[in-house]
Design goal:
This protein is an alpha/beta fold and 233 residues long. The chain contains seven helices and eight strands. The two termini are 50 Å apart.
C-alpha cells in the first residue's frame, strides 16, 4: 500500500502512531509517492534541453525528492523507494544546471553578425487594436532581423518547400487555424535551403519587408510581413 505525499509530510511531523504499529504487525513498507513523483517530474524536466521554460519541472522533481529524503530519514523502516528518489534528484539537479547553461550559450552565440534580434511582440498589433502592423513593426521595414517561430502546417505544399508561413506559437502551428494577420510572416528561403513539416521552433535571419497592404496567400487570408531568409535552422 502506498502513502500519499500528504501522508509522508504528516509522518515527518509525528514520531509515531497507529500507522507504525500496523506496518510492524503486517511487515510491509509503503512505496514513497514523493519519490515516484520526483522521478516523474525529473524525467519530464529532460524536455528543458529543448524548451527552457520546462526547467521548472526539474525544480518540482527536486522538491519531491527532498520530501522523500526527509521521510526516509525519519521513518527508514516504513517507506521504500529511496533509489527512485536518488535517481529523480540526480536527474533534476543535472537539468537545473545543464539546461540554463545550454540555453544561455545558445542565446549569446546564435545571433549572426549584422542582424538585429526581434520577437513577434514587435510585429503583433496591440490587444483591441486593428490587426495592422504597429509602429514598432513599420520601423523594421527593410532591416536585417533574427527571430524564432514555428512553421504553419498548412503553408507547406510539400516537404522540401522553400516558402512557408512562420507563426509565433506552438498552438497556432499545430492546430492550423487562421492566425491574426500580424502573427504571420511569409518566409522565402535563399540558396539551397528548404523546410519540411515539423513542430519544432526554428531560428531565421534575413531581410524583413513590411507591407502597408495585405498580400494574399493560398490557404490563408494573407500577410503584411515577408522575410527573405539567409539563415534557417
Amino acid at each position: 500500500m502506498a502513502t500519499s505525499v500528504s501522508d509522508e509530510v504528516e509522518l515527518s511531523r509525528s514520531p509515531s502512531g497507529d500507522l507504525d504499529l500496523e506496518r510492524e504487525e503486517y511487515g510491509y513498507r509503503s512505496v514513497s509517492r514523493a519519490a515516484v513523483l520526483s522521478l516523474v517530474f525529473a524525467l519530464l524536466g529532460l524536455l528543458s534541453w529543448y524548451f527552457p521554460l520546462l526547467t521548472i519541472l526539474s525544480g518540482v522533481g527536486l522538491f519531491f525528492a527532498l520530501i522523500a529524503f526527509r521521510s526516509f530519514k525519519r521513518f527508514p523502516g516504513e517507506l521504500s523507494g529511496k533509489p527512485v528518489a536518488v535517481l529523480g534528484a540526480v536527474c533534476a539537479l543535472m537539468m537545473l544546471v545543464v539546461s540554463p547553461v545550454r540555453h544561455t550559450y545558445i542565446y549569446y552565440t546564435e545571433l549572426p553578425d549584422g542582424y538585429e534580434r526581434i520577437s513577434f511582440s514587435a510585429l503583433k498589433s496591440p490587444v483591441g487594436a486593428p490587426d495592422f502592423p504597429p509602429e514598432s513593426a513599420l520601423e523594421l521595414n527593410g532591416k536585417k532581423v533574427f527571430l524564432k517561430g514555428y512553421i504553419h502546417p498548412t503553408s507547406l505544399a510539400s516537404n522540401a518547400a522553400r516558402t512557408f508561413i512562420l507563426v509565433p506559437d506552438w498552438a497556432t502551428c499545430c492546430f492550423g487555424q487562421q492566425p491574426p494577420l500580424t502573427h504571420m510572416i511569409e518566409v522565402r528561403l535563399s540558396g539551397d535551403k528548404f523546410a519540411n513539416k515539423s513542430f519544432r521552433r526554428h531560428s531565421l535571419a534575413g531581410t524583413l519587408q513590411v507591407r502597408p497592404y495585405i498580400k494574399p496567400i493560398d490557404g490563408l487570408q494573407g500577410v503584411f510581413y515577408e522575410l527573405d531568409a539567409d539563415h534557417f535552422q
